[in-house]
Amino acid sequence: MQPTDSTGGYGWEKFRRDLVSGIIVGLIAIPLGMAFAIASGVEPEYGLYTTVIAGMLISLLGGSRYQIGGPTGAFIPVLLAIVLEHGYERLLTAGLLAGILLVIMGLLKAGSIIAYIPKAVTVGFTAGIAVIIFTGQIGNFLGLQGMKQHEFFLQNIGEVLRRLPAASLESVCVASVCLAVMLILPRVTTKIPPALAGIAAATAVSLLLFDGRTATIESVYGAIPSSLPALALPDLSWGTIVTMLPSALLIAALGSIESLLSAVVADGMTGTRHNSNRELVGQGIANIVTPLFGGIPATGAIARTAANIRTGAASRMSGVIHGVVVLLVLVLLAPQASKIPLAAMAPVLMVVAWNMSERRAFKELLRKRSPESVVLVATFALTVFINLIAGVGCGLALVLLYRLREAVRRRGAVRTPAGAVADSVPLSRRRGRG
């Protein structure tokens, strides 16, 4: 494999490739950034700020040449739980602390340790997160007004069922247009980002046919500002740090796993080799800086990284260009972005959830009917019905128990033959030997 930064000289041809990739991935990242922010319980522009700041820093400082960073679906249930319990301001504190922890992890060379997390645990919590994201968008898809976000899965399902009679036909039509475009367009061409095309088509339908009767970003959250916010330090008082440290640990752990998984995918697609510890340091610096501009936690995004590679990226510059593209759209087209219907955002996240659900790996592990299957189901169920901490914690505890049991069995198997011979000798004969 080639080292991550083995570029072999940088000229016009490589810049052209980076420019094309950066523009395409930037256009893909715009709707995703807003959608992930909304689903995380914060205003949509914070997702764009994260895409710009963290996206550029992760590309410049991380350990993978092709990594694209930003807000991701994996963070949604974690960030939403933090916002519901502590509020947006303390989420910024948790994000900054997580960045510090990631830098420490990188400096301590913990990148290689994370690779040993069992597959059953990662597949279980990833599938659980996918279920939470998908079901969390049913309300927006149906145009249910006044939806309250709850911490637990069953509470949110109950909220949807209670408000189901108030579903909006206009919202369903708008969401269906977006979903149809996203599913059909890739079969026709791969040159146009499906999410962007779907949202554009759905917004046009909303404006032309329903005359603004569907809820939009502007009507719910206000107009998107056309600039980055002023630099501001989050609350770093001792009491807040102590309160938010557990959340920061969770963000750092999940971010490290997600970013290194993405880097491994990039290695497999390009034949390069990422530096896992540098990746953690780069992710950490990005998450330290991003909250200063109001951004939410970020990590490596597998789908956007893969799109970056498929569109011909040659170096880290493509990730920087992707951040610049998002910034330009924010500055130049914020009023137009504010008109996007929330119903058009729902299918984008539903498709993301479907794609990240690890369906095949889940089925394969489940068919084994082995201890791995038990770990998978426990991790998945607890992630969905309680939270990610419970799911991952239980999964790792079960893995540890199974491995301890196997170690004891192997140790017993080694000792059994000698013991069996000794026990088979009559007591009188053993005495005679002594």
From TrEMBL:
Domain of life according to the entry: Bacteria
Keyword Transmembrane: yes
Keyword field: Membrane, Transmembrane, Transmembrane helix
Occurrences of domain SLC26A/SulP transporter (ranges): 15-379
Topological relation to the membrane, as annotated: Multi-pass membrane protein
Subcellular location: Membrane
Transmembrane segments: 20-39, 68-84, 91-117, 123-143, 164-186, 192-210, 377-402
InterPro entries (alphabetical): SLC26A/SulP_dom, SLC26A/SulP_fam
Record protein name field: Sulfate transporter ychM
Organism in which the protein naturally occurs: Thermobacillus xylanilyticus
